[in-house]
Amino acid sequence: MKCQFCKEKEATIYIQELFGNDSININVCDDCASKYNIIEDYLNLKSSDSFQNIKLKKKTNRIKNIEQTECSYCGYHITDYFDTLSLSCPNCYSEFKATIKNTVKNIHSKNKHKNYRSKEYIKLLKKENKIKQLEIKLNDLIREEEYEKAASVRDIINKEKQHILERA
Amino acid sequence: MDIDRYIIPESSSTFAFSSIRIYRNFANTRFSNYADKEELEYIENSVNAVLSKDNNIYKKIKTNKLSKNEIENLKDNILINKNIKDKTIYLSDNKTIVVNLNEHITLQMITTNSKKLVQIYKEIKNEENKLSAYIDFAFDSELGFLTSTPRKVGCSMSILVAFTTPNILSFAPNLIKSIENKLKEYGFILKLKNNILYIRNKYMIGLTEKDILKRVCKISRYIIKTEEKIEQRLFTNSSLKIKLEDKIFRSYSILTNARLLTYKEAIKYLMWINVGNHLSILKIDNEKIYKLMFMVKTSQVKIHYNNEINNKNIKECRAKLVQDYLAVGE
């Protein structure tokens, strides 16, 4: 379909205005639409905007209230998430948490995980806590000048750290 | 243990198979769809290092070294429909580990025995524990295990159960809609494909893994009970019994005499033979029927005929395969 204004180029924008049972149809190319400010008249937008920009405006309105729009680890942008509904790295979950929690609630009807970790991970957490407590004890023993006891505590700490290193 | 009470009743004619899948990702590494070559190699090497400590019980397969037909055969055996080109797969008995599919690690186990669902759950958790001893999985205290899409966060465990329900499909097809609505309440999705009913859990967060198992067992019991109820009602009613017997014998005749068979038809008629066995109307070995349900897949027919057939005469070959297999031992 040719543009109604220049009658040379192919129309890319189609506008239909309805008045009760009657309607007015306008078929216009990009150049004529910007030249005669047609879209601005009908949709109250700036003359440089086209229908593609309307989609972008919807997106920008959506992300206006979101504080974090880019993942600091991988650079994934939140608009990519809106397009694909997939994420690039585990860090994206913490960067876009508020948005993703809404999506998760819509899909799963809940968005709080019922705590479960594997036995091995729980063992590891217990070891790390044990090391922290032993380090506090070590500092206390050094302050009290009980160096022999401090040495044995230091040996225990090194052994536990080696277990964790083996895991890595 | 509490979950040992969760069982699906034994039902030779309704329960087809079940699979449990667990998705895990490495912490601080991009997900497989966005990772670069180095990251993908690092993940593969790490998983290889962990699994090789296990006295080599896993067989490692690199799909880029397989032919097209071998890949199709592998996909049928491990029930993965996605593109597995250029992937590394570890196989052991009925355990499968796929590296870098959509997630870094996809663990899967399949069973054809309805009573073994809890057993395979325990086995798959053991494997996960072994991996987590050496690998830091991506985890968030609020969202659980993290995956490439929010659809799989939480427990990141998916259970699929397949049923053959010829009585519901033929005599009460309107029930499918009400079953689907009931499943939605429990957070399950129902899919009907090639006359087989599949159910899979949609909710993976806000529930523990035991909760999901419990719901699967409850739903399975409901579907099996509905199918058997309809079957009994037809069998005990003298005017309706003839319709049921007609379906069974008609299916047997078509399978033993047809010259062309599509996959969908083959499954449909084999399901009726299964019902016939269950009601002692027919006496065909159950294992034969189950094996045939697998062998009528397109890739399996091609393997049976040593890949000497093409897509034009696949239906003819399928029909011949079924007749030959049913005729053996008669």
Descriptive report:
The complex is a heterodimer of chains A (168) and B (330). Chain A is mainly α. Helices cover 58% and strands 8% of the residues of chain A. Chain B is built from 11 helices and 10 strands. Chain B has an 8-stranded antiparallel beta sheet with strand order 2-3-4-5-1-8-10-9, covered by helices on one side. In chain B, strands 6-7 form a two-stranded antiparallel ribbon. In chain B, a hairpin with a 3-residue loop joins strand 6 (139-140) and strand 7 (144-145). Chain B is globular and about 65 Å long. The N and C termini of chain B lie far apart (45 Å). The interface between A and B is large, with 33 and 41 residues.
Short key terms for the protein model shown above:
heterodimer; A: 168 residues; mainly alpha; two-stranded antiparallel sheet; 8 helices; 2 strands; B: 330 residues; 8-stranded antiparallel β-sheet; 11 helices; 16% strand
Brief synopsis:
The complex is a heterodimer of chains A (168) and B (330). Chain A has 168 residues and is mostly helical.
